[in-house]
Amino acid sequence: MNKKLLGIGLASSLISLGFLTVASAADPKPKDVAEYRQSVYTIIGWNFKPIAAMVKGEVPFDAAAVARHAQYVELMSKAALEGFAKGSGPDAVKHTEAKPEIWTNWDKFETAMNDFQQEAVKLTEVAKGGDEAAIKAQFGKTAETCKACHKEFRKD
Ligand code: HEC
């Protein structure tokens, strides 16, 4: 690449970087944060349900489908915490099932999220292995982490 072209390339990458900085520097509104996390959980639920149905025997077991859904759950388990930024609790939105205890007991909440992430990562790994019994067992462990957090931090 000659110098002139390099200059153009550099300038355009700086422009696109500038774009990114502006986008991420803007503080999202608490309401948007809350809606973001609700969307994340919608995606988690959307992908967890079909796995549950297979584990319960309601639909035929399909290891490849489990693996595909598990990947989304894993990815979203890593995205969820951002959706609980300070100030995005019940005061920020009309409709939320998030309890104020999330923010007054943050360490415990974060631990519950880490437990979920760890089990979700394992679920993807086990699902790729294709062993039905192992997948069912790991599904159970992952579901326990959902329940544990909902019990303490989500309104019924
Ligand atoms: C660390 C805590 C935590 C974990 C782990 C967790 N959740 Fe939740 N979940 C919440 C909270 C808090 C809400 C309420 C969010 C709100 O309304 O603002 C929620 C909401 C939801 C919703 C409703 C989404 C909506 O707004 O329509 C679904 C579905 C859901 N979770 C499924 C799951 C599943 C399935 C798992 C496990 C695979 C899971 N969650 C793991 C805390 C958690």
**What is the count of β-strands?**
0
Mean pLDDT: 90
Count of alpha/pi helices: 6
Return the structural class. Answer: mainly alpha
Classified in CATH, the superfamily is: Cytochrome c/b562
Elements, N to C (H/E)? HHHHHH
What is Rg?
Answer: 20 Å
Instruction: Name the CATH class.
Output: Mainly Alpha
| CA-CA gap between termini | 61 Å
Taking the sheet with the most strands, its summary is: none
Poorly predicted ranges: none
List of distinct ligands in this structure: heme C
Strand content: under 5%
Q: How many separate structural domains?
A: 1
Quick rundown:
With 156 residues, the protein is mainly α. It has one domain (28-153): Four Helix Bundle (Hemerythrin (Met), subunit A), CATH 1.20.120.
Plain-language structure description:
The chain is mainly α and 156 residues long. It starts with a helix and ends with a helix. The protein has a single domain, classed as Up-down Bundle (Four Helix Bundle (Hemerythrin (Met), subunit A)), CATH 1.20.120.10. Helix 2 (30-55) packs antiparallel against helix 3, helix 3 runs antiparallel to helix 5 (106-129) and helix 5 (106-129) runs antiparallel to helix 6. It is built from six helices and no strands. The chain binds heme C. Heme C binds next to helix 2, helix 5 and helix 6. Heme C binds at residues 34, 37-38, 41-42, 44-45, 48, 73, 96-98, 109, 112-113, 116, 142, 145-146, 149-150, 153-154.
